[in-house]
Amino acid sequence: MALEIRGLRVSYNIEGRGIEVVRGLDLDINKGECVGLVGESGCGKSTVGLAITRLIPERKGSITAGNILLGDKDVLTLGPDGLRDVRRSKVSYVFQDPFSSLNPVFTVYDQLKEALPDKRNADEIISGTLESVGLSGIIGNKKIYPHELSGGMQQRVMIAMAIMPNPGLLILDEPTTALDVTVQNQILDLVARLKDEMKLSVLFISHDLRTVFRISDRVFVMYAGKIVEKGLKQNISLKPGHPYTVGLMDSMPSFERRKQKFNAIEGRAPLFSELPKGCKFYPRCKFRVDDCALREPGMEIVSGEDHVSRCIRIKEIALDGISKS
Amino acid sequence: MELVKVNNLRKVFPKHKVTAVDGVSFSVNEGEVVGLVGESGCGKSTLGRSIIRLIHAEEGNVFYKGEDLLKLPRRKMRSMRRHLQMIFQDPYTSLDPRVRIGDILEEVFIIHENFSRGERRRKAEEALETVGLGASYLNRLPSDISGGERQRIGIARALATDPEFIICDEPVSSLDLSVQAQILNLLTDIQKRKNLAYLFISHDLGVIGAICDRVMVMNAGRLVETGTCENIFKDPKHEYTKRLLDAVR
Ligand SMILES: Nc1ncnc2c1ncn2[C@@H]1O[C@H](COP(=O)(O)OP(=O)(O)OP(=O)(O)O)[C@@H](O)[C@H]1O
Ligand code: SF4
Ligand SMILES: [Mg+2]
Q1: Mutate to test the interface with A, among B178, B205, B244 (most CBs of A within 10 A)
Q2: Rounded CA separation B125/B128 (Å)
Q3: Is A273 exposed, middle or buried, given 0-12, 13-18 or 19+ CB atoms closer than 10 A?
Q4: Inter-helix orientation angle B101-112/B147-159, to 10°
Q5: pLDDT of res. A324
């Protein structure tokens, strides 16, 4: 297994209080697999991504419980040297905004070189990597600056920097959100190809179901700091197992369902400081019954061991997925 | 009936030597929702802004009920704005974070009407009701509400003057799916109820396909294809349109 997270809890200091925003989260990624983590803004996705290499700023918050296993090591027990090694060569990140992730005052070449743990044969490795991310056009051009590249090309540079150390795990946090659809797809295709060629394990974080379904092997749906559904991509898209997932699907606008009223999920996500007691989706759920409010549901089987959902009514209610694609 | 007619509109940014809008012509009928799609940087927002003179276009005409907006004296244009409104992409920057929501909405009536204070307040409350928010929002600041609520305030402000034509520039692009769906429902409801005409700008073909009657596809400052939603989605003619459609399939 490339990554296994068990019972992860993270709190932030908000207005002088510690507020838990990741509330006992389990997630695992097999070697060479792409796992999508999807959920609405503020549900805690990025926090999970950051926790994996303990990048949550100390003053802002802390990991309070859980295990994060990378290979045979628990990241949460590592000392400074072990942690540095993990950050430098085992886990790489690509963030949403290529414009602010690249330093405008240094050349692209210098920043690529900086990202290499071992500078021997730097030119050769950089050329090879640029080639594989589809940037052969700038190979050998050591004078080019980030602003001279388009958003899509900048994101390719970020991906090049991320894969150069040959990491076991690549974490992409909303990597295409700032890009146009056609460019988005090129980047997704690139990630999919690199994943296969380099046998990369990938954690793909996004609020966008379309991109998550396009690239992931398995999907984890997150709501209010916890996983509420997980399963193979094709199982979830055809037969979703949680009312929240269905709500997200119904909110996706498309020509096929034109001029119908969107089946929008009513209300909005609860504040972490005022979470309801039982099922956290209860206030917004069309299928709720009184029992749902008693205690937070555990994971129930939807179809086979691998497709589970945190909903007590999953056996009684009929949910529809997206029939096309 | 034809409400807005844009004729051969051109906008050049001389400093960057780009022709952002390159001889664009089209019209929008009363009560019609017309979509404008294209990738970012293709000139969609510039076109929208030129139409209501938020930026100055070098050439062309914009007829509103037969009157050329681009030829109107400034003062006349200002009073004309009540009929043509705009909703912006970014609910974070389009509202002043330090001004209370009640005051933001009342300001609209100070500019456009001769209301008493009490009437203004009542009108502001009404505007909030229309977008599904209550009077409790009057005293809050834009920085203390969610993105979706902020976008509703932007919509309330645009609707407050009873316009007939609204340019919606990526009004849902920065929002989560569930909030996006709520806002699209709201915009469609109001459009039907008041028989408004929209020019709906988006790079998201899903959104366009879901709510528009007609679509115009823009690439590098020009309209490369226009047609009914049915025709464009089922039988695109232009290569660029096909490429955009493939991207969401
Ligand atoms: N540095 C911080 N200090 C205090 N609270 C924070 C901090 N960073 C995030 N939070 C809070 O923690 C919660 C989870 O945030 P997180 O960034 O993980 O969400 P997300 O799912 O990635 O959202 P988005 O899709 O908007 O990126 C939110 O309620 C957020 O307001
Ligand atoms: S447990 Fe009840 S409230 Fe929660 S998602 Fe299932 S049906 Fe809805
Ligand atoms: Mg995030």
Answers
A1: B178
A2: 5
A3: exposed
A4: 20
A5: 41
CA A83 to chain CA centroid, Å, is 21
Contacts of A186 (CB under 8 A, 6+ apart): A134, A152
Which is the closest atom of ligand 1 to the Cα of A47?
Answer: 18
pLDDT digits (tens, 9 = 90+) for A301-312: 998 779 999 999
Candidates A257, A248, A185, A256; CA nearest to A215 is A185
Q: Using a CB-CB distance cutoff of 8 angstroms, which residues of chain B are in contact with residue A264?
A: 178, 181-182, 185
Helix, strand, or coil (residue B159): helix
**Hey, of A15, A180, A212, A246, which one would you mutate to test binding to chain B, going by the most B CBs within 10 A of its CB?**
A180
pTM, two decimals, is 0.85
How does pLDDT run across A264-297, given as a tens digit for each residue?
A: 788 878 889 899 999 999 999 999 999 999 999 9
Q: Which domains does chain B have, with CATH numbers?
A: 2-83+164-248 (3.40.50.300), 96-160 (no CATH)
Share of chain B above pLDDT 90, in %: 59
Looking at the complex, report in whole angstroms how far the Cα of residue A267 sits from the nearest Cα belonging to chain B. 9
Q: Is the pLDDT of residue A162 over 50?
A: yes
Task: State the Cα–Cα distance between residues B147 and B175, nearest whole angstrom.
Answer: 7
CATH T-level fold of A3-100+169-179+202-322: Rossmann fold (3.40.50)
Q: Among B59, B138, B141, B144, which Cα is nearest to B105's? A: B138
CA torsion, points A103, A109, A114, A117, in degrees to nearest 10? 140
Give nearest CA residue, ligand 1 atom 31.
Answer: A42
Give the residues across from A232 on adjacent strands: A218
Give the strand order in the sheet containing B59-64: B18-29, B2-13, B59-64, B67-68
Q: Which atom of ligand 1 is nearest to the CA of A50?
A: 18
Interval between CA A43 and ligand 2 midpoint (Å): 18
* Residue nearest atom 27 in ligand 1 by C-alpha distance: A41
Q: Tokens 């389990």 sit at which residue?
A: A26
Residues from chain B contacting residue A254 (CB–CB below 8 Å): 206, 209-210, 248
B38: Cβ contacts below 8 Å, ≥ 6 apart: B44, B203, B217, B218, B219, B244
- Residue from A19, A25, A40, A47 whose mutation best tests the ligand 1 pocket (most atoms within 8 A of CB): A47
A58 C-beta neighbours (distance < 10 Å), count: 7
Whether A30 shows a pLDDT value over 90: the answer reads: yes
pLDDT digits (tens, 9 = 90+) for A50-96: 999 999 988 889 999 999 999 889 999 999 999 999 998 899 999 87
Query: Angle at CA A69, nearest 5°, toward A65 and A70?
Result: 140
Chain B hits for A252, CB-CB cut-off 8 Å, are: 177, 206
Chain A environment of B39 (Cβ under 8 Å):
180-183
A39 interfacial to chain B (CB closer than 8 Å):
no
